[in-house]
Amino acid sequence: MKTVIVGANHAGIAAANTLLDNYKDQQVVMIDRNTNLSYLGCGTALWVGRQIDSYENLFYTNKEAFEAKGARIYLETSVTSIDFANHVVHCQKADGTCFDESYDKLVLATGSLPISPKLPGCDLEGISFLKLFQQGQEVDRWMSDESVRSVAVIGAGYIGVEIAEAAKRRGKEVRLFDIAPTSLASYYDPSFTAVMDENLASHGIECHFGERVVAYHGENGRVSAIEAEKGTYPADLVINAIGFVPNNELGRDHLELFANGAYHVDRRQRTSDPDVYAIGDCATVWSNALAAETYIALATNAVRSGIVAGHNIGGTRLDSIGVQGSNGISIFGYNMVSTGLSVAAATRAGLDVCHADFEDLQRPGFMRENASVKIRIVYERGSRRVVGAQMASTEDISMGIHMFSLAIEEGVTIDKLKLLDIFFLPHFNQPYNYITMCALGAE
C-alpha cells in the first residue's frame, strides 16, 4: 500500500508518523514545497519578541527522522497537478525537474493561505505575513533594523495580537487595526475582550478597532504609511494577520467543498473521493458545540485529523470524536482561554443560548499570591448542555478549560457542574470554587 502525503507540516507529519509507526506494510511518500517541515508558527511571536532564546527549537522534527523510518520525502517540491482518475501526482522540484508519483491512497495536507487583500500599494516592500518560517525570519530582520520605528499590524486575532506584543517588546511604535470593535472578537465576548483591549493599550499599543485599512502608501518602493477609514498613519513595517483560507488549489475541481472552500470530509477524514483524504487546515472538522460540520484552523485539530486519517488508511477504523476549538493566549502576562462557542458565535450560528458569569480571586483572600479570575459558561437554553466557556486571569488558569472541552464533547449540562466534586486547598483555589459558583448562577 502506497500513500502519498502532500504537505508536511503538522497534519501531514501526524499522518505520516501514524502510518510509519503502526503499519509496516505502508510505503509513505511525503511532498512539500517548503525548505523545512514541522515549524511551530505559534512560536514566531515569542521569538520575534525575544521571549525565547532562538528559533531552532520551534522545529520538532526533520526530514532525516522520516527517512530513518523508511519514508521518501521531497522538500522544495511542488505538486503541479493531480490525476485523480489514474492515481498519479505530478511534481516539480525547485531545479525544474519533473516527476510523477502514483498512489493507492492520497492525503491532502495543504494547509491554509493567509488572506491577502489587494489594496492599493500591496506590492510595496515592507509588507509581510506570518505563516511560514521564512516570513518570521523576514519580520525579525526588519525588527532589528533601527530605521523601522513604526509597525502596523492588521488583524487583531491571536496572531495579530501576539505579534503586536512582540513588536512592542522590541521597542517599536505599534498600531493594531481590525474591522471588529474589539480584539479577539472571534473567540471571546465583549466583557472579556474589553480587558484585553485595556491590557494592550496600557502597554503602549495604539488600538484602532472598528477601522478598516484601505490602502498602503510608500516612498522609493517601500511602505511608509497605511491609510485607514479614520486617518493615515506612519508604518515602516506592515504585518498582515487578517486570517486564513483553506488551500484547495489541487482538489477544488474534483472534490466536494464546504461553504468556505475547505474540503468536505467525513469523520474518518475521507473526501468525496474514497481514495483521497484531507486533513488539517484544508479540511472541515466536526464541531461538538454546533453538532455540525464547520471550519476551525488550529494546529491541534490538524494533528488529530492526521492521526485519524493515518489509522483509517492503515486499516484500523477510527472515527473523529469532533472538536471544540479550544484555544488560549497570553499577552503581557494576561491569560485568556476559551473553548466551544462564545455567546456571539452561538447566536450567529442560530443557537438559543444563556450564559452565567462569575468573577472572584483564584485563592482565599489571605493568600499572598493571588489574582482575580473571570469565567463565563455558555449553555443552550432548551437542552441546557454546555456549548462554550471563557476564562481570564493573570494566573495560569489554562488547565480548567480542558474540563469544559470534555463537557462540550460529552453533552454535559450546566446543572451537572453545580455540585461537581472540585477539591479545595488554599495553595490552589477557594472552597467556593469559581467554576461551581458560576454554574450555580445559571438560570
UniProtKB/TrEMBL annotation:
It catalyses: 2 NADH + O2 + 2 H(+) = 2 NAD(+) + 2 H2O. Gene3D superfamilies: 3.30.390.30, FAD/NAD(P)-binding domain. Its EC number is 1.6.3.4. InterPro entries: FAD-bd_OxRdtase, FAD/NAD-bd_sf, FAD/NAD-binding_dom, FAD/NAD-linked_Rdtase_dimer_sf, NOXase, Pyr_nucl-diS_OxRdtase_dimer. It holds the Pfam family Pyr_redox_2. Residues 333-429 form the Pyridine nucleotide-disulphide oxidoreductase dimerisation domain. It comes from the Bacteria. One of its GO terms (molecular function) is oxidoreductase activity. Keywords: FAD, Flavoprotein, NAD, Oxidoreductase, Redox-active center. Its cofactor is FAD. Residues 2-306 form the FAD/NAD(P)-binding domain. NCBIfam families: NOXase_Strep (NF046103). Belongs to the class-III pyridine nucleotide-disulfide oxidoreductase family. This is NADH oxidase. It comes from Collinsella tanakaei YIT 12063. The lineage of its organism: Bacteria, Bacillati, Actinomycetota, Coriobacteriia, Coriobacteriales.
